[in-house]
Amino acid sequence: MDNRRTILICDNDYAFLNEMEKGLSKEGFDVDTIDNASDLIPSAIRLQPHVILVNPDLPGFNEYDVCKNIIQEQRAQVILLVDPHSTTTSMVGECMIEDVLTRPVKLADLVFLVVKHLSVDQ
Length: 122
Fold this sequence. Notes:
This protein is α/β, with parallel strands linked by helices. The protein has helices at 14-26, 40-47, 63-72, 107-120; strands spanning 6-10, 30-34, 51-54, 77-82, 91-92, 95-96, 99-102. It has 4 helices and 7 strands. A 5-stranded parallel β-sheet has the order 2-1-3-4-7, with helices on both faces. A two-stranded antiparallel ribbon has the order 5-6. Strand 3 (51-54), helix 3 (63-72) and strand 4 form a beta-alpha-beta unit. Helix 2 (40-47) packs parallel to helix 3 (63-72). The mean pLDDT is 88.
């Protein structure tokens, strides 16, 4: 699997996961989904995706681990998917997040950001 086209989505909204997985797959991306934050680091290490979409309001979301294991060590691009009432900012631990999308997320906006982050790293 070419991790340059791999996206990992971590969210517990199954309808959203299904919609984004189908839409991003149609755009040519390899998409893996998980539904809980405790699987985020092990899945990211195993899959080594280029882009990770994550809901930071999930129970068990650990800012330090995301910063250290995903952003610093794996150099993955992280996009936060937040609810309109979320207090999440563009910082996770001491790391800057690439982008923050507020729900409801439109597939076209998500594809645009993913493509942007893929082209920046090439």
